[in-house]
Amino acid sequence: MGSLPDPPIRRIAIVGGGPAGVAAAKYLIAENCFENIDIYEQQATTGGAWNYSELTPENKVDVPQTNPNQPLDQPSWRVNGINGTPSVSVFTSPMYDRLETNIPKPLMRYSDTPFPTDCQLFPHRDVVTDYLERYAEEVKSLIQFQTQVIDVRLQNPHAIHDVWTVQSENIVSGKRSTASYDAVVVSNGHYTIPFVPSVPGMEEWNSAFPSTISHSKFFRRPEEFLNKKVLVVGNAASGVDIAAQIVPYCAPPLLMSSRSESFLLSSPTGREELPEITEFISPSVNNRAVRFSNGRVEADIDAIVYCTGYLYSYPFLPSLHSQLISDGLRVQNLFQHIFYIEHPSLAFLTLPMRILPFPLCEAQAAVVARVWSNRLRLPSAKSMHEWEVGVISEKGDGKGFHAQNFPEDFDYHNFLYDWAAQTDSKVGKMPHRWDEKERWLRQQFPAIKKAFADLGEERHHVTRVEELGFDYDASLEKERKIEDGIKQQA
After folding, report:
1. How many angstroms separate the CA atoms of 470 and 400, rounded?
2. How far apart are the C-alpha atoms of 121 and 137, rounded to whole Å?
3. Which of 238, 251, 231 is nearest to 303 (CA)?
4. Separation CA 50–CA 132 (nearest Å)
5. pLDDT for 74-103, tens place per residue?
6. Burial label, 99 (beta-carbon count in 10 A; 0-12, 13-18, 19+)
7. Taking CA 155 as the corner, what is the angle to CA 314 and CA 172, rounded to the nearest 5 degrees?
8. 86 within 8 A of 171, measured Cβ to Cβ
9. Model pTM score
10. Using only C-alpha atoms, what is the Rg of the chain?
C-alpha cells in the first residue's frame, strides 16, 4: 500500500533513544494526536552512539567482516552502586577518547537547542554527550532504558490496518514484554557492525598475525600505537581524524591507504598516502606485508586500522530482514530513505551518509509525524518504488545509494522541510530550513576543519568560524567587487 488507511495511527514505538529517536518523539508529540509513544533504549542513558565506552577483551572484529546478518548486540556490564552489583549495561561505542566532531556547531545543532557559546567550534565528544542529554530531558519519561528490542513484526501482513508486535527484554532483569503498536520508528543507528572488506590473502594473514587488523570502532587512544608501523585504511572523517591522532606516536611515516583523495585531509606531515590494498601477502613469503594497487609492497606492519564504515543491519526485524537488507550496504524498499514502501507505518531515520545528522533527523521526523497524523499523503506504492529505482539508476545499488555529498544533503533536507511545510503551520513542530549563509558555511567546512586542525592545541580556544578567517558577509562583498570589476572591464 502507499498512503496509510484508516483507522488512524495512535500507538507508536520508537526503537532507539539516541539523537534520532528523541527527535522523533518530540515531533510526534507536537502533532497532539497520538495516544501512546514508547521509546526503547538498550543503554542506560540517552546519547546513542555518542555514549563513550571502554573496550573489553571481547571487542574484536571478524576479518573480513562483510556479513550484515549478525545477532543482537550484547552488553558488557559496569558496576553500579555500593554493593558492587554489575547493573548498568554498556554497549560498545564507536566513540574514541579524543574525538571531536567534523561538523562545526552552527550546522550540527538541533533547531531549538544551541550548543554552549563557549565550547570549541568543533565540539569534543563529552560536550556532545551533555548536549544530547539536555536535548532529551523533556521526553525521558517516555524512555524504557536498558530495554532491548528483540523482535518487531506485523501481526497480519495482509490486514488493512497495520499492527506491529514489539517484543522487548529488560537487560538487567531478563524480563520479556510484548506490546502492540500502529507504527514503529527505527532509530537505532547504524554504527554497530563494522565493515571490513575482503582482500585476497586477508584471512591467512590475520590467522598468522592475530589482533594486527582492527577497525575504527575499537580505536580508543593513539598511545596504543607508540613506535609501531601503522597503516590506516580509509580516508573519510574517522580515517582522517584517527590518522592525525596516531601520527605523533607511531613510527614515521603513518601509511594511509584509500581509493580516492579526501577533501578532509590537512597538510600531509608525518603521513604517506597510498592506493588501496590489493593483497595480503602470505606469511610464508613475507613478514606482515601487503601489496598496493600500484605494485608497492610494505612489510613489517605492526597495526592496520580499517576506517571503512559500517553495515546496515536490523536483527530485531527478522521477518522483514530479507526485504530490507541484502549485503548491508544499503536499506532496500524505502521511499525517500524513510518509509518502508509495503507498510509505511514502519519508518527509518538518518540512514543517509555524509549528512548533518541532528538537523536531518528533525526534518525526517517532521515528515513522519505529519504522514502518520494523516496531514500529509504518501504517493502510491508504485510511485515510491519508481523513486527507489531512479536512485539506483543514478547512484547504484550499493554504498552510494544513501550517500549524500554536498549540496545533495542540503537539498534533501530542504526538500523534507518544504514537504512538511505543506501542512497547517499552526499545528506540530517544524525544523529549520537551511538558508544561503548556512549553505555557504556547509560548502566551506572542509576548509574550516583543516584550518581548525592546523592550529593544534590552540584550536580549543576557537568558538566561531570568523576566528578562522571565514566570514560570509566579507565573502559576499568580495564577490560583489569582483563582479563589479568584470562589468567595468566589459
Report:
1. 31
2. 24
3. 231
4. 9
5. 998 877 655 666 578 889 999 999 999 999
6. buried
7. 55
8. no
9. 0.95
10. 24
